[in-house]
Amino acid sequence: MTPQAPGASDLLGPQDAGRGAAARQEQRAVVSANGDTTFVGRAAELERMDQCLRQAWCGKASSVLVQGPAGIGKTALVRHWLARLAPENHPVLRAACDTAEEDLAYGVIGQLTSRVPSVLLSRFPLLAGTTPTAEPFHVGAELLELIGELQSGGPVLIVVDDVQWADRPSAQALGFVLRRLEADAVLTVLIARSSTDPGRAGGLDLPHLIAGMPHSCDLTLTGLDTTDVAELAARVYGRSVATATVERLRDHTDGHALYLQTLLAEVPLERVSRQQTSLPVPTSLAQALRRQLDALPGPARGLVEGIAVLSGPAPLATAAQVASVPEPDSALEPLLANGMVRWWPSHPTTPVAIDHALQRDAILDAIAPRRLRELHAAAAALVDRPASWSHRVAATHGSDAQLARELEQAATDSHTGGEDDRAATLLLWASEVAATRAERERLLLIAAAHLLWAQQYTRVEPLLSRIEAAEPGPLRSLVLGGYATPRREPGAAALLTDALRASRSEADTAFVSAMAGTWLGINHILEGRGAHAEPLLREVLATDPLEPQLAPWALGTWGLARAYARGARAALAEYDTITRTAPTHSAAERAIQRGYRGMLHMWAGDLTDAQHELTAALDLARAEGCAVTAEFTYANLAASQYFLGDWDAAVINADLALAIADAEEKPWAFSYAYSVASWVPAGRGAWQRAHRLAQQSQQWTRVMPVYGAPHVALAEAVLAQARGDHPAVLTALRAVLDARPDSGPLAFQTWWRPLYVEALIGTGDLDAAGTALADLVALAGEAPSLRLSVAWLSGLLAQERGDTRRARDLFTEGLGRPAGVDDPPLHRAMLAHSHGRLLSGSGEHRPAAASFTEARELLSALGAEPFLTRFQDDFADRPPSPHPAARLPLAELTDRERDIAQLIGRGLTNREIAARLFVSSKTVEYHLSRIYQKFSLEGRRELRNLVQQHNSLSV
């Protein structure tokens, strides 16, 4: 039974507030939950938001991106809109981002879920607990499930303020959610500054984040018009204001909402109305706020300084202690009166916060340096240990070697716990208080290395000038080379080589050597030099000590390089030897190992073992909250399922690979994932989709041309094979044949060699086909998945050479062998069809009919329409399938409906289907209703029976 979805009052009810990160997340969520009494105007924007909400009511997920300069009124607009909706009691998930928490992994997600009842939240372990090592799409998947639970009472609202400051994992998880919302009653509102890194959140492109949603709008706010200025002035002054005065205020402030409110609070109406009297200059918000501060009574000034130093929402009593204000209640009154501070008296801790980040910045700028250090020192003694570090650094005057050492140790602890973002922040602070230039540079460079390992390139960019100015050395070369590698910038390999050579001769630089060797190995692979990468990575594996966090990735990358240089079977044998003898330190390491082992099994032709290992890796990663490069793991799983004939599952997993790569912005995965995603559409004759996916693989290959070339070649070759265009197959595979063997051809040879031999035979180049077939036969000796293709292609070549007796023997022998777990159904269908044609040509129609029937049934089960069409003359005289389910028109379904129908056939529940497809339960329900309608079905049981009967044709 689905629990009753909590309404807004449930999600925002009082909870106990602590002093740690969870409490700060909860208090930030509270901040974004209150209305704004000074709001005016914005009627058009409110109507557009209402339109998006109406779309959500209709089960069409919508999103709104509200952008504009700081202080223009973005937050006020959304607060006012939410206040209008309060009687409707929508479930609302809120978060307010802050620069101080950009390094807090999943901090924004924690805010969004902080007010969800614990009974409901406990069902989602990655949301209920802090798991910084979890992959963003796994966290996003749980958030999708939670959102599905909350939709029963109406639309769910997700509101994220100052999203440009979202921590990267949260931004990626939220991006994944937005891309997977379909038939959901959900409205997402993102609020972002347009003056600083416009459109970015955690390094992600916000417009791109919502562009894929069919129901979205972008609201860019400008200044208030004269009508709105007149209304606001009348509210502040308690009476109407003359038109000339209104126009003067509008011109002076350009309608900037926060500046206008500050000016109205500061200047009496009489002065504003006198045209000959100038308004305060310069016309700067910071100056106006400074004058407001100067006019405050002493206790109020002290209290607002304490609140600003504490940064986020904080208990009133704590702010008073920081500022040594004995009577905080009376000191708070003038701050509330001038709109500088917000207060939540109904919350147990009665938190307070500066109303706007611009106000907080102005307050901090106005505090004398010595006074500011004193306030930070007081705050450090009152907050928890993680929050105290920033205050201790801010309280330091000059260098403090002891504090730098403590910060470095705390960074080490964070790194060990998988929080590289936080570790980098602590190291950067340590750099600020270190005693010597050498120490400052060392700590800076280690921080940058942590950020690069966490793929936080946007945080490294502002550090580049300091990094480049550092003294030359292995650590500097490592960071600059690591930054240049994913950007394919010239000189990356030279820098990493310098780091590697120099670190070998210096003490205490084992981690530099290991990281440089790993990145250099990756660089060699991307440039198509697997043979260069393999010995480098082997040397990394011999590093003593090798960091536990780096070890499984270095080993997996070595396995990849070994496969590129020597072939997948050789790599798999040695990889298994190493992993059996080396101790495994964690579940995360086991998951990574299984992911890489599954990849090698798949390339080596052990398709069933590959599917088992890859599935286990994904399950373990989700259960333990760890990373396994899921974008590649899902793509590899899809590839193994394509060959094993589970084409519907392959479509699902290829789609997930692309969704993860897109949401987490991993461009290196696209050429591979798009290629794999194109295979099933090609095999089913969905030409436009297959061609589009192959083109997208080609487009992303431009980023890494040598690395991506084999992927594009395979996409185009599979498409040409489905069309029966043998010359086009050869043209496509020319990129593989002409490439360096260690740039991919050796690793992927179980994929492309059968296509190559078939195309050579089809074009009549029988001598070349014989040579290529000999290579295939040699490879098949250690690749189980090639057994049927060797029988088929050997017989086909013999037939084309006129040796029909040998061809018949080869076909018969191949079909007569016991079925193998790694036999591709498409290859068996082609073998059976070729056998049938040979028998039919010899006048043996009865045995030919049996082979043709087997071929047709296999191709029908796959949905391989182009092959069925091409062979229709051979199949024309065969009797139709006795199964009524064979007439089930699955082609009438959309891709998502087909996925859901197939999973219904496998007996999954709606919730299990939602988890499998990474969509919400509401989306599953919506598509199921459409399937029932299309097929005139009464319910789930009828659909399951039809799908199971349809799928049984492959048996």
Description:
This protein has 955 residues and is mainly α. Helix content is 65%, strand content 5%. It is built from 52 helices and ten strands. α38 packs antiparallel against α39 (705-723) and α44 (804-816) packs antiparallel against α45. 56% of the residues are buried. Mean pLDDT is 87; it is low at 1-35 and 880-887.
Give the helices and strands, then pairings.
Blueprint: H1 8-11, H2 21-31, H3 43-57, E1 62-68, H4 74-85, E2 92-96, H5 107-113, H6 118-121, H7 125-128, H8 136-150, E3 156-161, H9 168-180, E4 186-193, E5 200-201, E6 204-205, H10 206-211, E7 215-220, H11 226-237, H12 243-253, H13 257-266, H14 269-273, H15 285-294, H16 298-309, E8 314-315, H17 316-323, H18 328-337, E9 341-343, E10 351-354, H19 357-366, H20 369-380, H21 385-394, H22 401-416, H23 420-433, H24 437-453, H25 457-460, H26 464-469, H27 474-484, H28 492-504, H29 510-526, H30 530-541, H31 551-566, H32 568-581, H33 587-604, H34 607-624, H35 630-644, H36 647-663, H37 670-683, H38 687-701, H39 705-723, H40 726-737, H41 749-762, H42 766-780, H43 787-800, H44 804-816, H45 825-841, H46 845-862, H47 865-870, H48 872-875, H49 895-905, H50 910-917, H51 921-935, H52 940-951
Parallel strand pairs: 1-4, 1-7, 2-3, 3-4
Antiparallel strand pairs: 5-6, 8-10, 9-10
Helix pairs in contact: 2-5, 8-9, 9-36, 11-12, 11-13, 13-15, 15-19, 16-17, 16-18, 16-19, 17-20, 20-21, 22-23, 23-24, 24-27, 27-28, 27-29, 28-29, 29-30, 29-31, 30-31, 31-32, 31-33, 32-33, 33-34, 33-35, 34-35, 35-36, 35-37, 36-37, 37-38, 37-39, 38-39, 39-40, 39-41, 40-41, 41-42, 41-43, 42-43, 43-44, ...
